[in-house]
Amino acid sequence: MMGTRHPIVRSPARASDPNSELAALTTFSTTLAAGGSFRAACARALARAAGDFAWHAASVHLVRPDGVIGEAANTGAFLDAAARLARLHRAASTRAPVFGVQQDGSRRRRAVAIPLQAAGRTVGILDIVWDAGEGLPSQQFPFIEALATQLAAWVDRARLTDELEARLSETMSIRQQLEAYARDVRETFAAEKERAEQLADAFAELEQTYLATVQGLAVAVEAKDATTGGHLVRVAQLGRVLVRVLAPSLADDEQLRYGFLLHDIGKLTVPDAILRKQGPLSDAEWEIMRRHPAEGRRILEGIPFLEQARTIVYAHHERWDGQGYPLGLRGDEIPFGARIFPVADAFDAMTSERPYRPAMTIEQAFAETRCAAGTQFWADAVEALLEIPADELATIIGQGAEHA
Ligand SMILES: [Fe+2]
Description:
By secondary structure, the chain is α+β, with helices and mostly antiparallel strands. The protein contains 14 helices and five strands. It has a five-stranded antiparallel beta sheet.
């Protein structure tokens, strides 16, 4: 490996002492394997070797796959850095020892850069400088070659360690990023959940406010039309049960509930003399009374949360056969809620006691309602009424004015 093309001047002190070279190599190996970081171990071993082999200086360099050379350890100053760098690059590219001369003032020194081979490529370079006057004893060559072989294995292992550490560092970095991301997601989720809960609370509060407003208006209507005590609450409950039978998905529709509760709000505009008149109304009085659906729609105009409820208020006196008012709508032209409402309204009226007649039984009211199916009432709504359990119906119509 070393070759003999350069004249070697034997060192008198070490000319014929192979045992000392072997001991130096052993020391080098032991020092290198003593532990610690690669660079520190390499520096210690190189310093011992330089002393034992009587070198002026020595250094170890790492060669990266992309050809960049970096110093790993050295035993002292190199006076001619440019010459050394050129020597290192030539050794890396030729993969063979490169001899050179180092000029230190008036003194000339010789040098050799030895490529360190591992896994089929040059992984490092061992550079040695010795006094030219004393020369590098040729018997050192086998030992230096063995030393270079050991160094090559160590350099390669250090390279692998560096790569593993770099990958570990990269993995840790990615993990930290993922953990930070997960933390952000958790915090965002918690914040969004809290916000959703606040919105749900606010929405529920708003719904409660709407209902309280509607109930307040309903109470105002009942207070004016005293003959219908508890009627609004009962009709609203009956209507809701009918919706549950006919369209279960709308069972909790607040707009239908509001419409049932407020259906007669237009009566607030009807004079008490007409509203509370004992005996039949005149044609003129009926004319005024029949305005209450339109008046009710007008009262609720401009209230966004009652927009759909207004359709029930306006159409609650329409009949299935088109004989109702104010528009004379027929069949499916009548809004869904207003098709249901008359059945609930009439059933409650029939089962309520009036000053001029006693309350009908549930069976009597059933019979009357059934007779008007397909004319005054939507037949499906009548059938739905007949499906309501008797005990549930009894509970609803048993509620009096105190629930209004
Ligand atoms: Fe009415």
